[in-house]
Amino acid sequence: MKEEYTVIQSVDRALLLLEYIVAHPERKLTLTELAEVMDLDKSSVFRILTTLSRHGLVRQEEGKKLYKPGFGIFGLASSLYEQLKLPVVVSPYLREIARKTQENAHLAVKSGTQAVFIDREQGTNRILTNTNIGDTEELYCTAVGKCLISDYSRDELEILFAGQTLPRFTERTITDLDSLSKELGEVKAKGYGLDNEEYEPNVVCLACPIINYQGKIVAAIGISGTKDSGLRDLERNIGIIREAATAINKLLSGTDPTGETASSG
Q1: Where are the beta strands (DSSP E) in the chain?
Q2: Buried (b) or exposed (e) across 140-175, using 16+ Cβ within 10 A?
Q3: Which end of the chain is more exposed for a tag (fewer CB within 10 A), N or C?
Q4: Which fold has domain 3-70?
Q5: Complete edge-to-edge strand list for the sheet that includes strand 58-60
Q6: What does the pLDDT look like over 181-201, one tens digit per residue?
Q7: 257 CB-near residues (< 8 Å, 6+ apart)
Q8: Top-level CATH class of 79-252?
């Protein structure tokens, strides 16, 4: 399909306008100048600016008709930075999890309705499937996925999966939002997610959420194993993953794993 048929013009214009404003933070940009830059009428540019302002990506100087980058950009940038630095923080714990459980250990983040794996450590146990960096899995029927959306309300799930069906992968797969919402409530209460042959036959996965300094779930760590090994060592492996997640969460919240506040110096 040609690019001109895949680009949404209004979104493209909004992003081009935002890129221009961000590239000129020292300039006092007026509606007139921005309209000239975009080669659009003022009313169209004003609507775009209003939309960007609503999301905190553009701000208007108080009492002046001048536009500058909005502070909402920091939020987007910090989220990306957090994801980029997560493997550095989590990698030693993944190695320890893989060593203790002998199962494949992995780190995943949310992207749309998918869980994306951004780090992994291979265990010594043989498993039918293997997770590689960059692979994706469904949020609604995997252990890491359930952890990533365990704080979503029923209404938020409706928005997240708007208009989508939840495909069945095995006879155990959750395929409706009511059941998913109930399952996520249990994940939140227990502090870990379980995938008992919901995504793949004979594969059991365990995971715990990773929480940043703002108390937001930013990732999940977990393991994948065969049904026999996964269920046999369930309680022990949950304990190992919980311990690692607790230590990581303390690091991300500004305290070391012993619970002491990290110094700024």
Answers
A1: 29-30, 58-60, 66-69, 104-111, 114-121, 136-138, 193-196, 203-211, 217-226
A2: bbbbbbbbbbbebeeeebeebbeeeebeebeeebbe
A3: C
A4: Arc Repressor Mutant, subunit A (1.10.10)
A5: 29-30, 66-69, 58-60
A6: 999 999 999 999 999 999 999
A7: 246, 247, 250, 251
A8: alpha beta
